[in-house]
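Hello forum,

I keep getting stuck at the same step: I have a sequence, I want structure tokens, and every attempt I make locally crashes halfway through. Rather than fight my setup again tonight, could one of you with a working pipeline run this one for me? It's a single chain of 421 residues.
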Amino acid sequence: MTSTHQPPSPMRRWGAELTTFLKWVVFSCIIGVVVGGIGILFHFSIQWAGETRERFPALLWLLPLGGLFIVWLYRISGLQKDEGTNFVLLSVRGGKPLRLRTAPLIFVSTVITHLFGGSSGREGAALQIGGSVSSKIGSAMHLDDKDARILTMCGMSAAFSALFGTPLAAAVFSMEVISVGVMYYSAIVPCVLASVIASGLSALCGIPASRYVLSGIPGLSPLPVLQVLILAALCALVSMLFCLIMHRMPGWYAALLPNPYLRAVMGGVLVILLTYTVGSGDYNGAGAEGIARAMAGEARPEAFLLKMLFTAVTLCAGYKGGEIVPVFFVGATFGNVAGGLLGLDPSLGAGLGMMAVFCGVTNCPLTSLLLGIELFGTGPLLYVALAVAVSYMLSGYYGLYTEQKILYSKFRPEFIDKKAE
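Reply #2:
Ran it on my machine without issues. Output:
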């Protein structure tokens, strides 16, 4: 018996695709405005916390109390086992719903961490804020599981873009970071549009986009190519060290102090001791000033190690925030010093180091390349591409996010499907 089923006509198929496109345009605009607005408020809150801490350095002594308050907040909210950014990755890949309460909790806790001098970034908090808010919006709109995952990525992009003013990198990051080797291209329109809207709102509110000018960019020739290759290989090692410290430190804390309240107090006390031992507040907060100095050619040789230590002691004790801006600090200061020793201009070394270490800890080469273009322009593009590629390959299967899936080998064209170490 011959089937009478006829495939849909090209016009009907195109009409369905147009309907889907318009749906995502509407949803992207909503997420871009809502999450972008929250991201802008978050930016100004973190800025206020940093400026207040600089005016009143004695606030550092209240860091242990701030840690107690953060642990208490998460405990009474039922999120004492919160997995942070890892849970956002699980939500996109496995469809696990994000709780809306995550957004205000991470918002307040990150501001407290910055106000009292803990070393942390802001993008991890932004990804959690964007993911949880957009997930709730998707639930309210009764989206199915697959559409809800796209909306979560959309929120991640908008929050990242609102903070850094890098819409291209923000859009691609949320599609690339979940499962290395597989890009979620179905999310490209909503992620790009939400990211652009959030970045535009951020600019309208007077938030300057992150931009740096690198000096000493050489013409393409064998010697600087060799120098960049060596620098990128060293940055891959630095990225592996950073990941190892961030993954091992929680276990050390837990073995020594099983009580989370005591861990928070101990972490705060250690940050205070480290700050006064070093004799500088450069390693408290996110460290944006240190990054700017490295780009200008100034960095202390030990700065990258100290920032790693400050960040691990802070975040692994239960304080909140993100790791990416500290990663930028580590990469920029290490690249400045190591690049100078290799014969590169220290400013160029800082820029290449920042992108190479970022790629090593996130396993996101395309994001790293686009971020380099948005931060530095196209002048050093070929060298940024080379540094990113080498670091991606030589950093192995380490990563900041343990729930990140690495689906394809970095060394052979074969499927491996393993979690980042």
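The beta strands are 179-180, 405-408, 415-419. If your local run keeps crashing, start a new thread with the error log.
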